[in-house]
Structure formats: structure tokens, C-alpha cells
Amino acid sequence: MLAEFRRVLKPGGGTAVQYLGPDTLVELRRSWGAADDYNHVNGFLDMHDIGDALIRARLAEPVMDVERLTLTYAEVDGLMGDLGALGARNVTAGRPRGLTGRGRLRAMREAYERYRAPTAAAGQLRGSVRSRLGAVAGMELPRAEVRRCFLCRGCAAGGVRYLVPGVRCQPCRAE
Questions:
Q1: Rounded CA separation 163/144 (Å)
Q2: What is the CB neighbour count within 10 angstroms for residue 124?
Q3: Residue 171 backbone dihedrals phi, psi, to 5 degrees
Q4: Per-residue pLDDT, 164
Q5: Under 8 Å CB-to-CB from 62, ≥6 apart: which residues?
Q6: Which helix (H) or strand (E) segment is 159 a member of?
Q7: Higher per-residue confidence, 24 vs 148
Q8: What DSSP designation does 120 have?
Q9: Measured in whole angstroms, how far is the alpha carbon of residue 85 from the centre of its chain?
Q10: At CB < 8 A and 24+ separation, what contacts does 9-15 make?
Q11: How far from 112 is each of 28, 39, 123, 147, CA to CA, in Å?
């Protein structure tokens, strides 16, 4: 996807991305963890990983930001209903392959009760959403290539270096 961004962006153009961060739905993830050993909530990438991927795709000037949202529900079933209405599905490798029994669902609901706000939201359960926002410029960064130093064609300090074409190796820069 990032290579396609680089391909279609004009020099000086830009694009924005938005995705969910790893601390999204942390309350639901922890509550399911208290109920059983399966993965019930998808994992999300950290913004540092996305920023690094943008750099590796040779896109210039990535800027990342975080938006924190707290949703409130009377019961955890409201949160799970909204996730289902959005089309959210569990695609993790460690997800349960069978039906979730009443006992495990009850245990998750009981565990989620610790996230009930005592006063701020009139006893509502909270659900955290951490939205990551990113912007990147369409300028292409130079590709670092394996090249020999253009002066010495290799050096006593190790020969081939990762250099941007036309750059001297460290021993040759010192001369």
C-alpha cells in the first residue's frame, strides 16, 4: 500500500492516513483476557512502526499524531454491538474457532465492570479508542544502495558500505 502511495503521489503532493493504535479497546482486550486465553480483539500497529514503514517506503516527512477518544456505554453489549455494526471482525490467529459459551461471555462482562466510571459519566462503561493520524509528502527520498566508496572503491575499514550514491566512506571523508 505504501509503495502505491509513492507511485501515485506527485512531487510536492501528500496524503493522510488514519488507523487505530495498539491501545484501542484495551478494556475489552483485558476483560476477555480475564475470561479465557484466546484473542478476542484485533491488534493494531504502533505509530512508530507506521512512521518507520513510511520511511522504508521512501516517503518524505512523515508526521504522526494521536487522537484519544473515550466512548461510554451502559453495558459492554452496547460496545460489542457497535463493533459488529461497523463490520469489525476478529481476524487474529489466536481467536477461538468455536462458539463462545455463556460462561466465558459472563466472565468477560464481569471483568469489564472494573471500567465502569463511578461519577464522571454517570456509571457508564468506557471504551478507549486511540486513533493515529499520519501525513506524508509525495517527495521520494533517495534510495540507500550498497555501493563502494567512489574514491577508494572499498576501504580497509570494511570494504562495501551502505551509501547514498556519490557519498564517501568514513576513512575517505577524513582525508
A1: 6
A2: 17
A3: -60, -35
A4: 39
A5: 50, 51, 54, 55, 134, 135, 136
A6: none
A7: 24
A8: T
A9: 23
A10: 9/59, 9/137, 9/138, 10/138, 11/138, 11/139, 11/140, 12/137, 12/138, 12/139, 13/137, 13/138, 14/135, 14/136, 14/137, 14/138, 15/135, 15/136, 15/138
A11: 7, 16, 13, 56
Residue pair 167/91 in contact by the 8 Å Cβ criterion: no
The identity of residue 144, as a single letter, is A
How far is 154 from 159, CA to CA, in rounded Å? 4
Taking the CA atoms of the chain, what radius of gyration do you get in angstroms?
24
**How far is Cα 149 from Cα 151, in angstroms, rounded to an integer?**
5
- Given this model, what pLDDT does residue 121 score? 59
Q: What is the pTM of this model?
A: 0.69
Residue 81 confidence (pLDDT): 94
For residues 141 and 3, give the distance between their C-alpha atoms in angstroms, rounded to a whole number: 12
Cell, residue 11? 512531487
What residue ranges define each of the domains in the chain, with the CATH number in brackets?
Answer: 2-141 (3.40.50.150), 143-175 (no CATH)
Nearest to 57 by CA among 173, 167, 168, 138: 138
Residue 57 has pLDDT above 50, yes or no: yes
Amino acid at site 72: T
Closest CA to 26 of 70, 62, 59: 70
SS3 category, 128: strand
